[in-house]
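Comment thread on ticket #2218

A.B. wrote:
> Attaching the input chain for the structure job we discussed in standup.
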Amino acid sequence: MAGRKIQTFFADDQLQADTGLTKAKGLVEGEKVAALMGFTFTPVTYAIASYVKDQAHLPMIVSANATGEGLFLDPKLGSQYLTRFTENSAAYSASAADWAYKNGSRKAILLTYDTAAGIENADFWAHAFIDRGGSIVQEFHPPANTSDYGTYLAQLDKSADILVEFAPGADGLRMLQQFANYVGDKKPLFMDLGAVATGGPNLDELKDKAVGVVANKSWVESLDNPENQAFLKALRAKYPNRTASNDLAMGWASGVILKNALDKVNGQIENADAFLKALYAADVKAPKGQIKLDEGRDIAQNYYVYKIVKQGDKYTQQVVETYKDVSQYYDIKADDMKRFPFGQLKGKWVGMTKDKLPSLLK
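C.D. wrote:
> Ran it. Output below, let me know if you need it in another format.
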């Protein structure tokens, strides 16, 4: 890229903040890397962001997942070295709530797992939904790695229009596999917030049980743009039996973002200030659409609401609405965002009304 050979070092953080921080220090202080790139698990990302701000002082590019809002709002974490090109929990949660209300949902159940990410997403979704006139009738937060969701599903309020789930990976897979067994004939619309339960290989396992689920994401396989078609063609050529996923699309986009910034500085990544300015100014086309950063150096992009449908023997995503150029400030103003206690409102949404929302701001 830009006349330079890219030498990559890979580190497994084992989903542990301490391990991730130790590995990052080894890359920075031992291997003398010019930048840190990747990051999926939010606690790991937070630990390394603090280290980068206080000690490492080199570009940190979040390009895998790590959607937590605190990354830029917590003064202990945010710095000029940090950029995020993945997703933002405030943006995709609020836009999903907007779609739910506009399409007739008025009573909602929150069913998000009991982690920082699960509670944060529930808070942003509930705030946006109630602000539009909806209400939360039940709230459940099972622990991570729950194997039996029957206890929760059997209690669902039959008056609810929509069930909002955020339980990534195997947790969401198990929840959806059990959903039909417990709910009965009157099923609420199932919204897979952030497509954490039905994305990638999970869809291959769920099959018919995923049909009718509504999800939202910044990338959808069915997007008909040249960048997505090039990505899918390359993926199928090298891995013909591998299911395309958002993670893979973001990995591809990482290369696009890196190359764009390196081209702007003629490959001189060692000039950290110039390289960071090139990242800040990014406005590139990727499989998920146009990517750029907002004034807070966080991602601003399209989010797609879609239904999972079956076409012949294939399961695919049918986009029903596109929210364009959505940033973290889509639903909450910047000053209010700093005062909103996201991730701290577990158990407080049932009975919350629109007129009470301002009282949440600290």
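A.B. wrote:
> Thanks. Noting for the ticket: The domain at 89-222+302-354 is CATH 3.40.50.2300 (Rossmann fold).
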